[in-house]
Amino acid sequence: MGQKSTGPNLQGVLSRWGNDKNKLHAWIKNSGAFLKTGDKYANDLFNEYGKSNMTAFDGQLDDKQIDLILDYADKWVPATPVSTSIGGETKESDNTLLFGILTLILAVVAFTLMQVNSNLKKLSDDKEGVPAAEPIPVWKNRTYLAFAAIVLVIIGGYLTAKGAIGFGRNKNYTPEQPIFYSHKVHAGVNQINCLYCHGGAQDGKHANIPSVNVCMNCHMTISEYKGTAKLYNEEGEEVNGTEEIKKLYKYANYTPGQPFDATKAQPIPWTKIHNLPDHVYFNHSQHIVAGKQQCQTCHGEITKMDEVKQFSDLSMGWCINCHRETKVQFKENGFYKI
Ligand code: HEC
Ligand code: HEC
Ligand code: HEC
Ligand code: HEC
């Protein structure tokens, strides 16, 4: 809509036909027959668009339906995006720094109290005439040394364990993709159903990634990005959507105006984001069909992400926690025909 593609722009078509509804009805119902009347405007159009006949809609559309479509085309205005905020990030609070500072303050307080304690002891010893032992410097004091050693072992152990557990986990992983393909634009603003592209999530183990053909179903006609929501990459640089669609055309081996030949298209080398270890059996269909889980529960607010990032840590604890809350109904869920 609003632009030329396979055919002319439908907006304002009635006025271009001199507001002659009868002529337009005849053309839409059977353009081949109408061309034979020798109408100059119709024949010019036919030549401009590569002499290919428009499908005849005789018997499928009556005059009233045609008028409704023309009216819709004339009144159409571009969709306004749902939101224009950048990224839609939700800041996760990170308390590590706070805890670090608190620990430091407590350590200083403890150290001061110990100093005060030993000074007081020295004072009272002096008073009672107990001979004072040689003062030991801090770095030779066994108590302090033992304390420092214990603290180091605890912190070191904690960091090692944390690193080992997190090994291979990639929460928030956002790789750069060959094409800046925005889920916010497609699944958010334009509300394309997830299953249109990831139908496998319902039917099988894997939620497949769509092939170039699926993209070209729409992008034969959408060659420019005209959305009002600006696109930004991870680094906050603005991305030109039209240039990104041109990259798609390169993979598709497609030149606008020419026919699209799916056999000449190259697959797009997308980088896989979610990766479970090989020994884990995870099945989308079980979770979507039998478990009735929403994509967003596990993948986050995809419709607000320009670039997909890994929302869950995909750890074993993550699987188990949810399974504790939702009991698996082996027989009752009907997933297995037993
Ligand atoms: C028009 C097609 C299309 C639609 C609609 C779509 N996606 Fe995608 N999706 C893709 C493509 C292409 C990729 C691979 C590129 C990328 O990661 O951005 C992808 C990647 C993903 C990934 C990451 C896969 C990985 O590599 O681990 C998830 C998760 C995802 N989509 C979920 C969704 C959800 C949830 C919805 C609906 C809210 C949705 N998608 C709608 C095309 C689509
Ligand atoms: C159901 C239709 C449909 C499908 C399928 C589709 N797109 Fe789009 N695409 C659109 C619409 C609508 C826009 C927004 C155009 C605008 O706002 O001007 C768009 C915009 C874009 C843009 C520019 C904005 C951005 O996201 O960077 C790119 C690039 C793009 N699409 C790539 C793809 C790729 C790659 C695929 C296949 C995985 C795909 N599209 C599949 C409809 C579709
Ligand atoms: C119960 C959690 C959960 C739900 C619900 C879920 N996913 Fe996934 N998804 C995952 C996990 C885990 C992976 C990683 C799978 C792997 O590495 O084998 C994944 C991977 C993906 C991938 C990458 C391709 C693949 O299959 O590995 C896509 C695309 C995807 N999900 C889309 C969707 C869509 C669309 C929906 C909703 C219809 C959805 N997911 C619902 C957990 C979930
Ligand atoms: C958000 C919640 C949630 C998360 C996260 C989740 N699951 Fe599930 N899972 C479910 C639900 C709900 C069912 C189906 C319950 C039923 O059958 O009634 C299910 C079913 C299953 C089943 C099938 C059990 C059977 O025999 O019917 C397996 C296997 C499974 N999940 C593995 C995993 C693994 C592995 C992970 C982590 C990678 C995971 N799940 C993460 C909710 C979750």
Radius of gyration: 34 Å
Main beta sheet: 2 strands, antiparallel
Any ligands, ions or cofactors bound here, and which?
heme C
Uncertain runs: 83-91
Order of helices and strands: HHHHHHHHHHHEEHHHH
Strand content: under 5%
Number of domains: 3
N-C termini distance:
51 Å
The pLDDT mean sits at 87
- Overall structural class, as computed from helix and strand content, comes to mainly alpha
Trace the largest sheet across and list its strands: 1-2
Gross geometry: elongated
Please provide the count of β strands.
Answer: 2
Residue share in helices? Answer: 40-55%
- Count of DSSP-assigned helices: 15
List keywords for this structure.
338 residues, mainly alpha, 3 domains, two-stranded antiparallel ribbon, 15 helices, 46% helix, elongated, binds heme C
Describe the structure.
Helices cover 46% and strands 1% of the residues. The protein has 338 residues and is mainly alpha-helical. The protein has three domains: 13-75, no CATH class; 102-166, no CATH class; 183-325, no CATH class. Strands 1-2 form a two-stranded antiparallel ribbon. A hairpin with a 5-residue loop joins β1 (231-232) and β2 (238-239). α11 packs across α12 (241-252). One heme C binds at residues 276, 280-282, 286-287, 290-291, 293, 297-298, 314, 318-319, 322-323, 326, 328-330, 333, 335. One heme C binds next to α8, α11 and α12.
